[in-house]
């Protein structure tokens, strides 16, 4: 993977944790394999008390972030956890880091965070490349398309018929359409929001697609409750917290931390190394895999994970569905997927996929 301009790609998981939990439904016998990213969704899976959660990521800074969050859970109380990560204000983050968190980190992570102390000072959840892109939206686009009062009204919700009519009218204005499409265009996203390599397989007009998704979000009467999009709009989680950061999940995550292992490497290799996986959170890593590599992933999964119960993943814009390319090995949990997809709080994905082994292949 190319060296990104920003060290951390994401400092929050931009995949709906509530959906992922409902899809995988981890129980005490489950062995979970999970993509690291910002760690949030792996901690959410851990909160359900599975036998193990093994976290894989190919990008070392992301793993350092997961290590950091793991240590924060271990050593801080809930209020201090919120303050250190940046959910609430603090001027003491470096002191807390050096005194309490750093001693728990592996040597390489200690060096990484000392070199990037500024990210800790600012509150690390605000410091990823994608979070920076949302910041550009807040600063340069939002003030042009809506006033502060309009935005406050939108999130106060639910919208009236008159509100929805007004949103439709604005979305149709050529200037707004043009501005949003520039902001949502592939070159701008590559430069400021997402890794260029993640677009390798994209064959569509991305800005048109994202504009349609954005319009869908604005016109959805439930959107005022969406804490992920609230963050993108305001730069803080005022509306509600992501699952892993909610007070009711704190102790469950903390008490299960010894069941979490972090590994620097590809999930593909994890399939072989952790042969007894029953659940897999694959984020949207298939997005940029050429079809031949995606099929090879499916073959590997079928060959090395005989106890698989479910795998869940997102397609952002590229179609990658295991049960379509390997129906003899995998079948789509259609009803569950349809039910959950209707509630996806991250509006920009094309689809969410939950699959299990084709019934005849389930081990006794
Ligand atoms: C796939 S990205 C997706 C995040 C977000 N949904 C998006 O679309 O931008 C999430 C994480 O997966 C990691 N990653 C990508 N491919 C991987 C692979 N084959 N094995 C393990 N980690 C991988 C990246 O380093 C990143 O931290």
Written overview of the protein:
Strand 1 (31-35), helix 2 (40-46) and strand 2 form a beta-alpha-beta unit. It is globular and about 55 Å long. The chain is built from 19 helices and 7 strands. Helix 3 (60-75) packs across helix 6 (107-115) and helix 8 runs antiparallel to helix 11 (174-183). With 364 residues, it is α/β, with parallel strands linked by helices. It has a domain at 129-234. A 7-stranded mixed beta sheet has the order 3-2-1-4-5-7-6, sandwiched between helices. Mean pLDDT is 92; it is low at 1-5. The longest helix is centred in the middle third of the chain and has 17 residues, at 129-145. S-adenosylmethionine (SAM) binds at residues 9-10, 14-15, 35-37, 56-59, 62, 194, 198, 266-268, 283-285, 316.
Distance between the termini: 40 Å
Task: Determine the mean pLDDT.
Answer: 92
User: What structural class do you assign from the helix and strand content?
Assistant: alpha/beta
Distinct ligand kinds: S-adenosylmethionine
Q: Could you give the order of strands across the largest sheet?
A: 3-2-1-4-5-7-6
The parts where pLDDT drops under 50 for at least 5 residues are 1-5
Q: Spell the H/E element sequence.
A: HEHEHHHHHHHHHHHHHEHEHEHEHE
């Amino acid at each position: 993977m190319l060296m990104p301009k920003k060290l951390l790609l994401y400092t929050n998981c931009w995949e709906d944790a509530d959906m992922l939990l409902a899809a995988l439904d981890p129980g005490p016998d489950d062995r979970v394999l999970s993509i690291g990213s910002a760690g949030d969704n792996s901690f959410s899976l851990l909160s359900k008390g599975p036998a193990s959660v093994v976290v894989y990521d190919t990008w070392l800074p992301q793993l350092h972030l997961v290590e950091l969050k793991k240590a924060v859970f271990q050593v801080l109380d809930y209020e201090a956890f919120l303050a250190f990560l940046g959910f609430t204000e603090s001027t003491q983050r470096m002191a807390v880091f050096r005194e309490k968190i750093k001693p728990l980190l592996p040597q390489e992570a200690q060096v990484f965070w000392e070199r990037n102390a500024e990210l800790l000072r600012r509150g690390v959840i605000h410091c990823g490349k994608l979070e920076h892109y949302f910041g550009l939206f807040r600063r340069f686009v939002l003030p042009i398309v809506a006033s502060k009062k309009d935005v406050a009204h939108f999130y106060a919700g639910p919208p009236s018929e008159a509100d929805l009519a007004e949103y439709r009218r604005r979305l149709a204005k050529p200037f707004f359409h043009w501005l949003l499409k520039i902001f949502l265009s592939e070159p701008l996203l590559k430069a400021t929001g997402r890794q260029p390599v993640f677009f390798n397989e994209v064959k569509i007009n991305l800005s048109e697609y994202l504009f349609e998704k954005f319009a869908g979000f604005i016109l959805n009467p439930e959107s005022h409750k969406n804490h992920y999009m609230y963050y993108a709009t305001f730069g803080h989680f005022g509306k509600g917290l992501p699952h892993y950061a909610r007070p009711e999940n704190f102790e469950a995550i903390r008490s299960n931390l010894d069941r979490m292992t972090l590994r620097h490497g590809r999930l593909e290799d994890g399939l072989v190394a952790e042969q007894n996986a029953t659940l897999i959170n694959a984020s949207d890593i298939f997005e940029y895999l050429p079809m031949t590599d995606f099929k090879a992933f499916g073959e590997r999964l079928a060959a090395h994970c005989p106890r698989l119960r479910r795998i869940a993943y997102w397609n952002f814009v590229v179609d990658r569905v295991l049960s379509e390319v390997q129906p003899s090995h995998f079948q789509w949990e259609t009803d569950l997927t349809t039910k959950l997809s209707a509630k996806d709080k991250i509006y920009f994905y094309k689809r969410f996929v939950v699959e299990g082994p084709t019934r005849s292949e389930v081990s006794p």
